[in-house]
């Protein structure tokens, strides 16, 4: 239902292409420039932070994605002639309780696991808290990070999930393609340079998780909450010199990163448990159909009318 509701008789896949093409081209151009010019992303970021300060660098890195969010929503409304509600959920209205539930669950988990890591290996961390920079960080993060994560969710789990699903008539194709695109979008992140391309498995796996909960729940609300919590807690709680979010957070991780079990743990244990929790809370059923079924290309109003008619026969 979530994918199908974007389809109308005036559906035109060409209208879906400009924003994804422009955004992904810019991401690719950034990566190519880094490779061709042999840019050390981590060193470059450290130089920028030394020159401008961590908060200004964070704001400048988030601003383009916030702008893209506004452009995407305006494009959906005025070019695709689709409501923001239908881009968000198959329900009659956006379920904010789902957003806050997912946010709360993942925020609590992130804080708890960080606390466990800190108390088990305190030598791997240092206290980085400074009241004024942290207060500025909090203001920037609370406003800008949800806009950044919302853009990524609306683009991949909303706009492209619906567009690819309708174009291919396959939910599974939409799920796989958007997950791969989401993972590869992070290829220029500093942590990829530090830990290697194997880290892309984590990003692709995270995209797969978010795609699954979107299809199973018929909306992006849970994905919006999860993604916002993940990035916001990371920005406020713990930073390091080798991640994309280098901030004036409470803690600084001094440990040497390694691409090993830390990558597999979320993918094979934590994410499946999270799926189980959501499935119990929201009573998900019919997994096979929702994740791998065909997309029926019939305008939603016709489906509804036909179903009502069949019910009276």
Describe this structure in words.
- GO terms for molecular function: hydrolase activity.
- Residues 140-233 form the CAAX prenyl protease 2/Lysostaphin resistance protein A-like domain.
- It comes from Flavobacterium suzhouense.
- InterPro entries: Rce1/LyrA-like_dom (IPR003675).
- This protein is mainly alpha-helical and 313 residues long.
- The protein has one domain (4-305).
- 70% of the residues lie in helices and 3% in strands.
- Strands 1-3-2 form a three-stranded mixed sheet.
- The chain is globular.
- The two termini are 23 Å apart.
Biggest sheet features: 3 strands, mixed
Strand order of the largest sheet: 1-3-2
**What portion of the residues fall into strands of 2 or more residues?**
under 5%
Q: How many separate structural domains?
A: 1
How big is the Rg?
A: 20 Å
Derived structural class: mainly alpha
The number of E-state strands comes to: 3
| Order of SSEs | HHHHHEHHHHHEEHHH
Mean pLDDT: 91
Helix content: 55-70%
Overall morphology:
globular
- End-to-end C-alpha gap: 23 Å
Ranges where pLDDT stays below 50 over 5 or more residues in a row are: 301-313
H/I helix tally: 13
Secondary structure: elements and pairs:
Layout: H1 18-36, H2 41-52, H3 54-78, H4 84-88, H5 96-120, E1 125-127, H6 131-168, H7 171-184, H8 190-195, H9 200-217, H10 221-237, E2 238-239, E3 251-253, H11 261-282, H12 287-292, H13 300-311
Parallel strand pairs: 2-3
Antiparallel strand pairs: 1-3
Helix pairs in contact: 2-3, 3-6, 5-10, 6-7, 6-10, 7-9, 9-10, 9-11
């Amino acid at each position: 239902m979530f994918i199908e509701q974007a389809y109308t008789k005036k559906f035109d896949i060409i209208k879906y292409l400009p924003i994804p093409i422009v955004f992904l081209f810019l991401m690719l151009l950034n990566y190519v420039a880094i490779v061709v010019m042999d840019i050390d992303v981590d060193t470059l970021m450290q130089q920028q932070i030394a020159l401008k300060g961590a908060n200004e660098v964070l704001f400048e890195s988030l601003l383009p994605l916030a702008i893209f969010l506004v452009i995407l929503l305006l494009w959906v409304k005025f070019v695709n002639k689709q409501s923001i509600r239908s881009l968000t959920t198959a329900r009659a209205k956006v379920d904010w309780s789902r957003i806050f539930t997912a946010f709360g669950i993942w925020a609590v988990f992130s804080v708890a696991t960080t606390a466990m890591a800190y108390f088990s290996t305190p030598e791997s961390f240092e206290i980085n808290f400074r009241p004024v920079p942290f207060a500025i960080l909090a203001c920037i993060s609370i406003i800008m990070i949800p806009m950044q994560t919302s853009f990524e969710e609306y683009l991949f789990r909303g706009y492209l999930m619906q567009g690819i699903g309708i174009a291919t008539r396959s939910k599974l194709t939409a799920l796989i393609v958007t997950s791969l695109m989401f993972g590869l979008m992070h290829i220029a992140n500093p942590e990829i340079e530090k830990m290697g391309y194997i880290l892309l498995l984590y990003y692709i796996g995270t995209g797969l998780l978010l795609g699954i909960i979107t299809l199973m729940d018929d909306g992006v609300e849970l994905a919006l909450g999860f993604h916002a919590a993940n990035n916001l807690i990371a920005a406020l709680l713990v930073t390091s010199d080798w991640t994309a979010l280098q901030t004036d957070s409470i803690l600084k991780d001094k440990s040497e990163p390694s691409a090993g079990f830390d990558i597999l743990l979320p993918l094979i244990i934590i994410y499946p448990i999270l799926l189980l929790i959501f499935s119990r809370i929201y009573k998900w059923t019919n997994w096979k159909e929702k994740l791998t079924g065909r997309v029926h290309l019939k305008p939603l109003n016709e489906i509804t009318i036909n179903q009502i008619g069949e019910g009276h026969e």
